[in-house]
Design a protein that fits this description.
The protein is mainly alpha-helical. Helices cover 69% and strands 0% of the residues.
């Protein structure tokens, strides 16, 4: 996964999970890290919810909601996320008439899990440290071409 961001940008990812998720290269690096930990379904669910909330057509709202439900929420879903029973039950009861906010509680829960658990581990990971080191080294070469 080639990362084209500069050192300042790569280091800025450590400011917050929002900064990381909003940056294309940061998101790609985070996804790769989550895959290595077998927990990429969390960021995939979060991204699916972000896309879902932008949906304008009522028929697309229904079909996208059903896809999110079958991919991430229902029991034994291929990318089942770990959410509490109450939230899962609430979504299951309302999925037949979905609204743009029907996944908000689950998305908040997954976001919190990523922010408090996965994100700090990502920042401590060798992968992130290597990216920062490569970016810093790349910047030195730009300014000191004789190195």
């Amino acid at each position: 996964m080639p990362v084209k961001s500069d050192a300042g940008e790569t280091m800025a990812w450590s400011e917050s999970v929002d900064t990381l998720l909003a940056n294309k290269d940061g998101l790609a690096a985070f996804r790769t890290f989550l895959k290595s930990e077998f927990s990429e379904e969390n960021v995939e669910f979060w991204l699916a919810c972000e896309d879902f909330k932008k949906t304008k057509s009522s028929t697309k709202i229904t079909s996208k909601a059903q896809k999110i439900y079958s991919d991430f929420i229902q029991a034994n879903a291929p990318k089942e996320i770990n959410i509490d029973f109450h939230t899962k039950t609430h979504i299951s009861q309302n999925i037949s008439e979905p609204t743009l906010s029907c996944f908000d509680d689950a998305q908040r829960s997954i976001y919190s899990l990523m922010a408090k658990d996965s994100f700090p581990r990502f920042l401590r990971s060798e992968m992130y440290k290597e990216l920062v080191k490569k970016q810093q080294h790349g910047n030195q070469k730009r300014w000191l071409p004789f190195l």
